[in-house]
Amino acid sequence: QVQLVESGGGLVQAGGSLRLSCAASGRTFSRYSMGWFRQAPGKEREFVATISWSGGRTYYADSVKGRFTISRDNAENTMYLQMNSLKPEDTAVYYCAADPQGILHGTSSQVHAYDYWGQGTQVTVSS
Hints:
This protein is mainly beta. It has one helix and eleven strands.
């Protein structure tokens, strides 16, 4: 069983920055592919960014490319999402997700590719 706990959300003005963290349990975190997703009220959960087990490959949704940076620290069992130049349309609950077989499966932007999810952290960007 993998437990994921997000933190770092909050209220920020447009143009500001936030850094989200996702702390993971498990002894084999370095084998997991990890992802960030978000869900705004009344909308489906959508892909934000993903990172490979080694951190060597990252992919982003077009809507956040150039503004958000995903990273991970395998020694600390933690993944991060640095969010800069935030826009009101970035307002959502942000979820981290893990695929414990990521070293075999690679990365994915699909919700169904991830087996474990955190409880989410709210990000609100005011205009």
